[in-house]
Structure prediction request, 304 residues.
Amino acid sequence: MTLSNTGIVFDIERFSIHDGPGIRSTVFFKGCPLSCWWCHNPESQALEQEMWYWGRRCIRCGACLEICTQSAISLSNDSMITDEALCTACGDCVQVCQAEAREMVGRQVTVAEVMAEVEKDIVFYDESGGGVTFSGGEPLMQPEFLYALLQDCKEKGIRTAVDTSGLAAWKTLQSISELADLILYDLKLMDDGKHRRFTGVSNELILSNLRSLASQGSAIAVRVPIVPGINDDRTNLLRTGEFVASLPGVPPISLLPYHKAGVDKYARLKKSYALPEIQTPSDERMAEIAAMMTRFGLTVRVGG
Prediction:
């Protein structure tokens, strides 16, 4: 695979304990081919840089309005409004915003810059059995950059995991899986029609790629978000358990309870959130689902 020295990420989170074994650094790639209704990182979906606006922080000083060369910002009803059709995301307004109400989401980085961050915590990886997780968004949307990072980590003895939806050409996923120590594979819905409705894409390639990964003996951990009213019905849960149990090697499965941690981000990006009424499933409900999965002979964990 051709390597790329640069890519675009929107965060590097240190001391994570929910994105694979041990203490980890998680590198969040920008760009995702899915548009899940419950996505808690909406800033990850677009591949390009974006700007978001924290209305509660804004002091209406007008500095952004004055510096914008595109005339994309205006004051309306005591709120600073950005015309997305005119905004070029140049970042000038971010630089003059003293209240930090404007923020660029996503930045171009090099392999060396990412590695400089993740190498700070090598001692914690070694002591805890942790490492680096490449997440998103969908890291497979930037395969050349991901491959270069995985290669660098391997040379430095840093264990790696890739968190993926599996929606990529098999050749791409296979190349990445040969370098990664662990694939965290998201499995959302078994019914293709429902998958299309709630994520915007078919699950046909996703399921096929997961079968292929398991058949070649890759280290996999399946992760299933539990979203009430979307995929927690008995039919979907039984089909999910049956499918995972049928895979060669029978990978473990993690059940991830839905949460609302990302709801405020939609307002900052001026997007609507599709599931405002849904609540986090109770511990009791998660235990019921875990027991259902265990009956298939699966190793089940609740949480990341």
User: Anything to note?
Assistant: The domain at 6-47+107-302 is CATH 3.20.20.70 (TIM Barrel). The longest helix spans residues 143-155. The mean pLDDT is 94. The CA atoms of residues 169 and 280 lie 33 Å apart.
